[in-house]
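Deliverable D5.2: sample structural annotation.
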Amino acid sequence: MKDNLPKVAIVGRPNVGKSSLVNRICKNNEAIVHKEPMITRDRKYYLTDWNGREFYLLDTGGIDLRSLEKLNVLVFEQTKKAINESDIIIFLVDLREPVSVLDEEIVNILRKIDKKIIFAGNKWDDARGNYYLEDYLKFGFGYPIKISAVHGINTGDLLDELVSNFEVNSKVVEDKTSEEPFGITILGKPNVGKSTLFNTMINEERAIVNEIEGTTRDSLDSIVKINEKDYRFIDTAGIRDKKIKTEDLEYYSSIRTFKAIESSDIALLLIDSTEDVTKQDLKIVEMVIEKGVSLCVVFNKIDLASADRMAELVEIFNERLKFASYIPYLKVSALTKKGIKNIIKTIDTLIDERKKVVADSKLTNFFKKLQLEGGVYSKGKQFKVKFIRQLKTSPPFFLVFSNFDVGRKTSIRRYIENNIRKEFGFIGTPMYFKFKH
């Protein structure tokens, strides 16, 4: 995050439209919006702007102080952190409903902080409707700015008020970083320990860790500096092995996860060492490879599994991942932090492998040597490489000129790939080819 930019938190009780307002301000659908309350649980950061003024918008979970359930308490803790981090608070209420005890409790919290509060009333969809506008005057914040996050009514007025409170010197400073940090997505089925690993990696209790399956509904990311290098870690919702209807909340969570994969360079697939390997685990592997993302399989919870159990798991994966034998394995415990340092080392290795460039002469001479040693044949004719060139990196892509049309001959493609990997590496990284003759 750019330290010079203002941070703005949107707070309010559950289901008043905070995520809808985030999407309206950010001009996208990054935040999940659903009729079910308490969808946003962790605090999320969005870089956006209004009239040329950039700022960070912090979406938060709904505050429900009446509930003593562990998850609600954790959500409240995340919201408090967002309030403490922010320069300005947008307090959002639902004008279609009367003042609630929860609204009053939030006001009591906001009165104890010395920060600018912008009061906004949402769901002002029709001026002729029945609203409880006057009721909210009791808070002492004056009339709320009447808006409709869904329809965009008066949101420009809200943003004008917001940026007018930015410090004069809070101008955008050019980011001097020459390149974006590599993105690392943490994947896996629900409840395998993704959020625990995420928190361990970023060294902060940012993602809510709870024993309830499916706690993470959305993807979270943090840029972390480790050994003077920046990494962008992305925590995601668990990918389930079942069909999901488009109106289901899990459908939107899955879409966020797929987007997270597409925006990543590296994926860590977490496997619960105490459970069996499933088809869903293998589907995730195939999905990551299809998107051109480097992959490492991480066996988590090794503190709960025996040595024999770990050996069995590795053997199963070796058998089922013959099509991607270049993928490395790690054994860790996100809870006890055992093996965590090896994750960073492996990530650095995968980054180097993604960026690796092999000279044209080395590639061409290598395959001509193989041809002299016997090479590979198709329908009695020897396949010969006339020239081979690496066109790009991240992931590696090669152009191969040969003596005949390769078409869909997977044996030849496999021959090219396996030999490149054997000679030049490219650990954990998918590889792509284009053939010409």
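Annotation notes: The mean pLDDT is 80. The chain is about 30% helix and 20% strand.
The annotation will be released with the project's public dataset once the embargo ends.
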